[in-house]
Amino acid sequence: MSKEIELVDLVDASGQIKKKAIPRSEAEQHPNLHLQIVIAAIFDYAGQLLVQRRALTKSTCPGDIDLVCGAVVSGETPEKAAIRESLEETGIEPKNLKVVQSGVNSYSRFRYLLIGEADGESNSYDPVEVEWVKFMSPDELRAKNQSGELTFVGEFFEDMELAIDGK
């Protein structure tokens, strides 16, 4: 049985769709267009942030701490993409999602940064994607970065601070 091809819409720098439903594997063939991604900063009732440690088998940033993130599939809203990615990666369905910033990031992706809320703990996650999932305070994350105890994906702290400001 073959794996289903993931179709995506590519956008220009202003977020307007310019190419619809192309295979994700072909996205890089369009250098002036951008793959849409979501990064979701999901907070619990105590203000702790949902983070995950990327699986060591991942080709990009293995073992790094990350927020919920992933591609927006063709025809999907950023909010729907964030819910899908969160459920896939962490087993948590975020509530009250809102986009706090959008635009082209340093990886040439059109990034939607969303904030949302969670009212429960993760009871399942995809071990192919992540090694562990937990809620941590922003201060704890900063301290673990400062000490070198944990490593983080690029732009993690910029996204975290923007999310905190957007709450």
Structural summary, described in words:
By secondary structure, the protein is of the alpha+beta class. The chain has a single domain (7-166), classed as Nucleoside Triphosphate Pyrophosphohydrolase (Alpha-Beta Complex). It is 20% helix and 35% strand. The protein has 3 helices and 9 strands. The strands form 2 sheets. Strands 1, 2, 3, 6, 7 and 8 form a 6-stranded mixed sheet that branches. The radius of gyration is 16 Å and the shape is globular. The relative contact order is 0.21. The mean pLDDT is 94. InterPro entries: NUDIX_hydrolase-like_dom_sf, NUDIX_hydrolase_CS, NUDIX_hydrolase_dom. Residues 32-158 form the Nudix hydrolase domain. One of its GO terms (molecular function) is hydrolase activity.
Short descriptors:
single chain; 167 residues; alpha+beta; Nucleoside Triphosphate Pyrophosphohydrolase; six-stranded mixed β-sheet; three-stranded antiparallel β-sheet; 9 strands; globular; NUDIX_hydrolase_dom; hydrolase activity; NUDIX_hydrolase-like_dom_sf; hydrolase
